[in-house]
Specification:
With 154 residues, this protein is of the alpha+beta class. Helices cover 39% and strands 23% of the residues. The chain contains three helices and five strands. Helix 1 packs antiparallel against helix 3. It is elongated, with a radius of gyration of 19 Å.
């Protein structure tokens, strides 16, 4: 009977960790999606006055980080705030702006990360690395590379 209890508790811990892991992954994807979409909407006002659709690169990066930090509850260095679920730094592995200097449709390919996207207008591409803080030690450590892109809306 004791053996069955141990097996049952191990299976329960595994199921709990798997569900929390999926929830964490989706939360990270949604946070990155919001950040990239916000960044892609940062118009360069000087170029827009000339009729050129372009993204203001410094504003875009700043806004993307602000959205990511707000949605994942991170500090300015992308470390989790005290008493939050995440435990490890969220690493921005790639932040790329595809701007008006490119010929559209523009296909961005990153074979190292297995990612390809075609943009029809200026846009932003961003990758982050997010680690799952395991509740139990039943699962092996999980780290995701989450990828997202968004185009300027006009």
């Amino acid at each position: 009977m004791a053996l069955m209890s141990v097996v049952f508790m191990s299976m329960y811990a595994l199921q709990t960790d798997e569900e929390l892991a999926m929830h964490t992954l989706f939360h990270g994807k949604h946070a990155l999606n919001r950040a990239v979409h916000a960044a892609a909407q940062q118009s360069d006002q000087d170029k827009l006055a000339e009729g050129i659709y372009a993204i203001d690169e410094s504003k875009a990066k700043s806004v993307a980080l602000q959205y990511l930090q707000a949605n994942l509850r991170l500090d300015a260095a992308n470390h989790p705030l005290p008493n939050t679920f995440l435990q490890d730094e969220v690493v921005v592995e790639l932040f790329k702006i595809v701007n008006e200097g490119e010929v559209f449709p523009y296909t961005y390919t990153n074979s190292a990360y297995g990612y390809s996207v075609t943009l029809d207008r200026p846009g932003v591409i961003m990758f982050i690395r997010l680690a799952f803080p395991r509740t139990y030690t039943v699962l092996q450590p999980i780290t995701w590379r989450i990828k997202c892109s968004a185009e300027m809306v006009f």
